Amino acid sequence: MSDAPLIEVKDLGVRLNTSRGPAQAVRGVNFALRRGETLGLVGESGCGKSVTALALMGLLPESAVISGSIRLDGAELIGLPDAAYCKLRGNRISMIFQEPMTALNPMHTIGHQVAEPLRRHTGVSAAEAQLEAIALLDRVGLPDAAKRVDAYPHQFSGGQRQRITVAMALACQPDVLIADEPTTALDVTIQGQILDLIAGLVEERGMSMILISHDLGVIAENVDRMMVMYGGTVVESGATDAVFARMGHPYTQGLFRARPRLGARKGTRLKTIAGTVPELADLPAGCTFADRCAIVEARCRAALPAVVDVGAAHGVRCIRTDVSMGAGGSSA
Amino acid sequence: MSVFFLRRVLTLVATLFAASLIIFLVLDALPGNAAQMLMGADASPDAVRALTVKLGLDQPLTVRYLLWIKGMAVGDLGNSYVYGTPVAGLIAERLVLTIPLAIMSMLITVVLALAAGIYTAANHNKLGDVGVMSLTQVGIALPNFWFAILLILLFSVKLQLLSAGGFAGWDDGIWPGIRSLLLPAISLAVVQAAILARVTRSAVLEVLREDFVRTARAKGLGKREVLWRHVLRNAMIPVMTVMGLQFANLLAGTIVIENVFYLPGLGRLIFQSIANRDLIVVRNCVMLLAAMVVTVNFVVDMLYAFIDPRIKVSNL
Fold first, then answer.
1. Where in chain A does DSSP place strands (E)?
2. Interface test with B, best of A116, A161, A175, A176 (most B CBs within 10 A)
3. What gap in Å lies between CA A44 and CA A29, rounded to an integer?
């Protein structure tokens, strides 16, 4: 494991054209990921975590305007021609998507779909790719892989299909795996199995992983470091333990309080964060969380707060950390 | 697959049966006597009665219907009231023109429509898309007989490349026949191609928004590879449905186009038989057209199952 980052993102910004006009979906995102390291992206829908992932994959719509820098092993990815990007996708960077029911092509056998990246990137023969596909399907725990390799996606359950997409993403032994809400669409009992499978494979193959989830529990259990996103910006980042131990941003604290808990008495209301996620098309000028923040001040709305270091590699984009992290501030 | 197939065959037979009943009732059971119509209002009642018996029109409806069905089963459709020759022979000699014409125009339709539809979808909202889609808008608005006349003016009168009408037959080889059917086939195809191109475009665009397209891109496939390997097969279902429906339009179109180009085809035979009140020919021709349309749609249904693996299972 060398110290040079495998992926280095600097001041990433993405402007999307939405039906409501141009929207700054992501701004000022910085992070570095070393080989074998795992990073979690957490936040509500529309906070920019999926857009960040698609920017890494180079799969944003053509109308999207991307600024900043994304480097893979030192090579700049932004502005890379599609043909060159195609050589990386599925080969060095892979992605697992949220919706296993629609992420597979209903017209092709699963064996064909798992073998496709192998055929595309490694130049093996169709027969070799098929054998490799069976081995992969076997590894992700698909029962009777050799027999079912010629079956179609509709013949599998949601959990099995997600196993198939995992096999597909791992076919070419990528350096980085991006998992975008990989278990959100699955039954609770299956979620743990799929996460364990992904975590096991990441460790076994020494891959780096970016795990995207809105579920703090999933993040806490599966990644070394985490970034909390809100309104297109990273509001808090740091080692997972540190962030959970000393939540610095009012949004992180709100998110933590809003999670449902086992053992809570019936009738106990879930604590929610007041207000709604701002439209990306008309974000407030200052801190994006200002409108929903309990400790907001006038100066919060003046400009986007800078990141404040509150610990070793633990950054919070808030100018009121003295209050938020003061007495009782981080109590959950 | 077998249950799916069996069910479709049953539907096919039932549809043909219903069509034959309707055709028979409309043409034979409605008030008015075919013999009277053939001989004109001034004919003597005796002569009309004699012709009625000779044509078998004095028998009860059910007997006449069953005789017709039986005749179709054994290939004896009776004799034309006007020409006195077997209807089967009349139809057969017209089909050697109309079937190639229908196939040619369907081929032209499909090639033009798929090319235009895929091109415009791949270049969504770009100049080429807008241009080609405007062209299809014009294409839909064109009456085919008028377009046929324009084609004649250009290729026959001005450039003198192709003949303005008539059919060369297949005796001198395949090319003279195809040459004489080219302009009629194009005039029939243009409107259909315009419609089908729009259907293809929207079907491809719809599939392009599917999640599995993004998955395919994430595997490292280029846009073109994704289009050919993942999108088209999914987009073919609605396209084929419309193709099946268009085949009926196309056959109806031959009645007009064969008259514009003086082609001795099935459409012209129907047209002339209606003018001559040759009801037995009309009845059998219409039945044949119905059978062709139903068969084409049956084939389309079979192709669904061939293309889409989900269909076989959901029907088993």
1. 7-18, 21-33, 38-42, 65-72, 75-76, 93-96, 176-180, 208-213, 225-230, 233-239, 308-311, 314-316
2. A116
3. 16
Total residues belonging to chain B: 316
Residues of chain B with pLDDT under 50: 313, 315-316
DSSP string, A177-225: EEEESTTTTS-HHHHHHHHHHHHHHHHHHT-EEEEEES-HHHHHHH-SE
ipTM of the complex: 0.88
Residue A19 lies in a domain: yes
Domains belonging to chain B, first-starting first, are 87-314 (1.10.3720.10)
From A217, A223, A221, select the one nearest A202 (Cα to Cα). A223
Q: How far apart are CA A203 and CA B312, in angstroms?
A: 41
Residue A231 is given by DSSP the state T
Query: Which residues constitute the domain of residue A115?
Result: 7-223
Q: Given the DSSP bridges, would you call strands A176-180 and A208-213 parallel, antiparallel or unpaired? A: parallel
CATH number at residue A158: 3.40.50.300
- Give residue-wise pLDDT tens across range A163-200: 999 999 999 999 999 999 998 888 888 888 899 999 99
Of A83, A97, A108, the CB nearest to B214: A97
**Subunit contact A102:B211, Cβ cutoff 8 A:** yes
Beta partners for residue A69, in sequence order = A10
pTM of the full predicted structure? 0.84
Q: Are B140 and B194 in contact (CB under 8 A)?
A: yes
Q: Please choose, from the candidates A199, A206, A244, the residue with its C-alpha nearest in 3D space to the C-alpha of residue A225.
A: A244
